[in-house]
Amino acid sequence: MALTAVAMVLTPGPNMIYLVSRSIGQGRSAGLISLAGTGVGFVIYMLMANLGLAVVFVAVPWLFIGFKAAGVVYLANLAWQALRPGGRTMFDVRAFPHDSPARLFRMGLVTNLLNPKAAIMYLTLIPQFIEPNRGDPTLQGLALGLIQITVSLTINALVVVAAGAIAAFLAQRPSWATWQRRVTGTLLGAVALLLAREVPARARV
């Protein structure tokens, strides 16, 4: 599970893009405060997924299928934004206003709650690691969720701290920045394609 969590967090998505932008535009502290908000978002998803949300998707299959389809479209759009001519990388500085710590936390939380990759991970990926014959599925789900949260926060914190240095490095090496953008777009596109194969599948408990 830990290796899967590492692979997921290293595939750039809305959370990492937002956190990097905040760190570059307003400083490391702003990025870390925003990261705290995304961490709370993960906890909310973990609790919802393990305390009954999956039952709703089983009862209303089209809702689950539609949710996954929306996530695929969102990731595909991110891939296009990175791969299209003139596309930007997640280390490009974006013009953000300097917000208060409370607003930074709220925006980090909302960014994660609206992140389809996070939702799909908790509703479709993590349940695959649960083995009913090894104990209470709910407790297993919570334990796996805590592993994912720990991995995600640790790696994103390292990215936030290093974002400014990475951005400066890429700014001095345009060809490296281009390749980073292409790799990012390709990874996002690959994830979108993999998830697209799972869209027709219904939720099950």
How would you describe what is shown here?
The chain has 205 residues and is an all-alpha fold. It contains eight helices and no strands. The chain has helices at 2-10, 14-26, 28-59, 61-83, 101-113, 116-125, 137-171, 174-198. It is globular and about 55 Å long.
SSE topology sketch:
Elements: H1 2-10, H2 14-26, H3 28-59, H4 61-83, H5 101-113, H6 116-125, H7 137-171, H8 174-198
Helix pairs in contact: 1-7, 2-3, 2-7, 3-4, 3-5, 3-6, 3-7, 4-8
Provide a short characterization of the protein structure:
With 205 residues, the protein is mainly alpha-helical. 78% of the residues lie in helices and 0% in strands.
Low-confidence parts, pLDDT < 50 over ≥5 residues? Answer: none
Structural class category: mainly alpha
User: How would a textbook summarize the main sheet?
Assistant: none
Overall mean pLDDT stands at: 75
Could you spell the SSE succession in H and E letters?
HHHHHHHH
Beta percentage is under 5%
